[in-house]
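Box 3.1 A note on notation
Throughout this textbook, protein chains are presented in two layers. The first layer is the amino acid sequence; the second is a token string describing backbone geometry. Keep the layers aligned when reading.
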Amino acid sequence: MDGVCKISGEAQESIRRRSCDGRNRRKQLECEKESSQTGDGVAVLAVQQIRRMRGGAQGQLMLGADGHIYVVKFQNNPQHRRVLANELLASRLAAAAGLTVPECELVEVSDWLIANTPELEIDMGLTQVRCQPGLHFGSRFVGGTMPGQVVDYLAEEQLSEVKNLSEFAGILALDKWTGNANGRQAVFARRQRERRYKAVFIDFGYCFHAGEWRFEDAPLRGVYYRNDVYREITGWESFEPWLTRLETIPADIVYEAANEVPPEWYGGDQGEMEALVEKLLTRRGRIRELLEAFGNSDRRPFPKWGTRVEEGGEVNWKVGRWGNTIEGRVN
């Protein structure tokens, strides 16, 4: 497969051992591709560093051999090694629920690229350390090479016209399920000559409480900082279809996503990963309870709860399966 290197078990170590001596980049790329023709997994080979990204993980914007640009978070980032595992697992679960998230891949960064790119370093405060070679998390850069078409803030009028504004309800359900200890982050992208933006949800590193892999639920955690995105939520139906998809997601799907995470990203203890998955599966039945806690918070994020717009007029949302108030949940 052109532009990627296949990685799996011994093949992954083979790629690292048989890495080229770094005399020139072309020779390095050819050697990496030749040494990666076996294996089940697929990792994109990073070929160039572009710039450092903002944020606590100090990710790097990098060009992959597949021609795409990735935001790459390294194993030895200042936050925690498990942040990479969280990013991959939560992104896969979000995609399985049909939420708009960037495509993500394993990204292989070679010793040669590290040694020949001075900018590939991490600021640890009092010291600077080199980025670690190996397998890292890569999230497809939203907007790619289209400058000016991606923003992280929209004025209120533009925000209200975002194409998939209703998805903020779905990502809220996912963040509550996965115990996101950080605020929800999103960027807004549009194609050239388009007027309206589309929200893309990014940064899942603090799901499962970052490196601690525990759940410390609080009403205001894992939520977007502007109530505007929740203003049109009128009842449990506003969380569909994402809420039901998360509540009924098969265990096999969750385990499949977990199995994609390289063990080196979480210390190699597969028992800890299995325990995390089991907790997630148990928490499926608590998502509505966690959403209710946010709805009843001092932020009052759902001012239209109990009403909905139907056939051009506002009518009361009558008692259905889940009741007509935020308090009317069913466990």
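The longest strand covers residues 41-52. The longest helix spans residues 82-96.
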